[in-house]
Design goal:
The protein has 277 residues and is an all-beta fold. It is built from 1 helix and 20 strands. The mean pLDDT is 93.
């Protein structure tokens, strides 16, 4: 579905999560967005109960500079509350709840080498507590996507598979304790936007490896499929079924759209990766 609003602050969605009773999102213009999906017979028809609020800084006010409010990902904190990843001023900020004042900020040494507009674009926390943070454009010498894995109190740099064709990771969500789904996007004139979804087995990385994770590309989209600058990914389980929601960042550009897509991840494909199970 295409989402539209008369509120000029609506748009620029860059991260998405299912909270259990609705969705929470962040925008790279420094806002929280919450909504409930409207569905009939399992099909997505629109959204309702939309709330928009500024993301506050430690002083209780929204950041005065765009570079300080460039939120790119949101995740449910296992300890309670929400974690927001920012780029330009690379950091992870912990909030007790949406629209609250943050109670903690993390600045990871490894992010200091990331370009200002290539920060923590995709964030996922696994059920076992490990945390994965993808840089948007940072690549290792072998061509893999650079990411930070935090496990057992240690953060280290790893390389994870990326689709070919100049795709960049834009969001990620844990499927289980060792598998993560990653959304990627690309823009290649004159072909326009594209998107891809990959499934990565993190078991080797959780065991100490820094490369060589098995991966499988589950889907790839391009025109004439209705997509845009896909940046948000959320997972919702319902009645033994697994659903994915993808949302685009319209860059506050009237020529772009906020697209919300619902997919079902079938059990037969959920963890099968190149012979690994």
């Amino acid at each position: 579905v295409l989402l539209r609003s008369a509120d000029p602050a609506f748009g620029a969605i860059s991260g998405l999560r299912w909270t259990g009773d609705g969705f929470v999102a962040v925008t790279d213009t420094g806002n929280w967005l919450a909504f409930r999906s409207e569905e009939r017979d399992g099909r997505l028809e629109g959204v309702a109960d939309v709330r928009l609020a500024p993301i506050l800084g430690p002083d209780g006010r929204p950041p005065s500079l765009k570079s300080a409010g460039d939120a790119e990902a949101v995740e449910i904190d296992p300890a309670g509350g929400l974690i927001v990843s920012y780029e330009q001023d690379h950091r992870l900020v912990h909030f007790p709840a949406m629209a609250s004042v943050p109670d903690r900020t993390e600045r990871l040494t490894a992010t200091m080498g990331w370009a200002p507009n290539s920060g923590g674009e995709a964030l996922a926390v696994l059920p076992g507590g490990a945390r994965l943070l993808f840089a948007e454009r940072a690549r290792r010498p072998d061509g893999s996507c650079e990411a930070l894995l935090t496990s057992d109190g240690e953060t280290r740099t790893i390389g994870l598979p990326c689709p070919g064709g100049d795709f960049s990771p834009t969001d990620a969500v844990a499927l289980d304790a060792s598998h993560v789904l990653v959304l990627h996007r690309r823009f290649t004139p004159p072909f326009g936007v594209g998107a891809a979804l990959t499934l990565i087995d993190l078991a080797p990385m959780l065991a100490g490896a820094d490369s060589g994770a098995p991966a499988r590309e589950l889907a790839r989209w391009r025109s004439p499929v209705v997509i845009d600058n896909m940046e948000g990914l959320a997972l919702r389980r319902d009645g033994g079924r697994t659903f994915l929601y993808l949302v685009s960042d319209d860059n506050m550009n009237p020529l772009q759209n906020t697209v919300l897509i619902k997919l079902e991840l079938l059990p037969a494909t959920s963890t099968r990766i190149a012979g690994h199970r």
